[in-house]
């Protein structure tokens, strides 16, 4: 982990590296770019786990004053991530480990 110096630009690169059912693991790489030399240095790597919402609802009021709720069914399953290159497989394993740490920290239950 390195700080981003004042006067530099923070740049981010993201990729979905693992998915399982309704969860995805997104890896974010943070870079610092020196504005004078355009030198780019990796400063940190983050892993985020997102859960798919099963249902989203919106409430709208009709002209007669009654509330109507419309439900939008969302796909609760994400497509499977399939690595094709060696470097993609390394990221896939890192994402799988992040997923397993989350499951272990939550007692193998729902999260």
Descriptors:
111 residues; alpha+beta; Thiol Ester Dehydrase, Chain A; three-stranded antiparallel beta sheet; two-stranded antiparallel sheet; 1 helix; 5 strands; 18% helix; 44% strand
In short:
This protein has 111 residues and is an alpha+beta fold.
What do the pLDDT scores average to?
A: 79
Summarize the main sheet: 3 strands, antiparallel
Number of helices: 1
- Going by helix content, strand content and strand pairing, the class is alpha+beta
CATH topology group: Thiol Ester Dehydrase, Chain A
Radius of gyration, in angstroms, nearest whole number: 20 Å
Structure summary, number of beta strands: 5
Describe the structure.
With 111 residues, the protein is of the alpha+beta class. The chain has one domain (9-100): Hotdog Thioesterase (Thiol Ester Dehydrase, Chain A, Roll). Helices cover 18% and strands 44% of the residues. It is built from one helix and five strands. The chain has one helix at residues 86-105, and strands at residues 9-20, 23-33, 40-51, 55-61, 67-73. The strands form two sheets. Strands 1-2-3 form a three-stranded antiparallel beta sheet. A two-stranded antiparallel ribbon has the order 4-5. Strand 4 and strand 5 (67-73) form a beta hairpin. The chain is elongated. The relative contact order is 0.20.
């Amino acid at each position: 982990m390195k700080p981003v110096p004042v006067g530099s630009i923070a740049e981010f690169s993201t990729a979905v590296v693992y998915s399982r059912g309704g969860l995805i693991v997104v890896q974010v790489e943070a870079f610092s770019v020196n504005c004078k030399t355009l030198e780019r240095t990796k400063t940190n790597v983050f892993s985020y786990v997102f859960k798919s919402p099963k249902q989203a609802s919106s409430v709208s009021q009709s002209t007669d004053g009654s509330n109507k709720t419309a439900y939008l069914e969302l796909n609760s399953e994400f497509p499977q991530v399939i690595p094709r290159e060696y470097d993609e497989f390394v990221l896939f394993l890192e994402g799988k480990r992040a997923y397993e740490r989350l499951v272990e920290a939550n007692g193998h239950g729902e999260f």
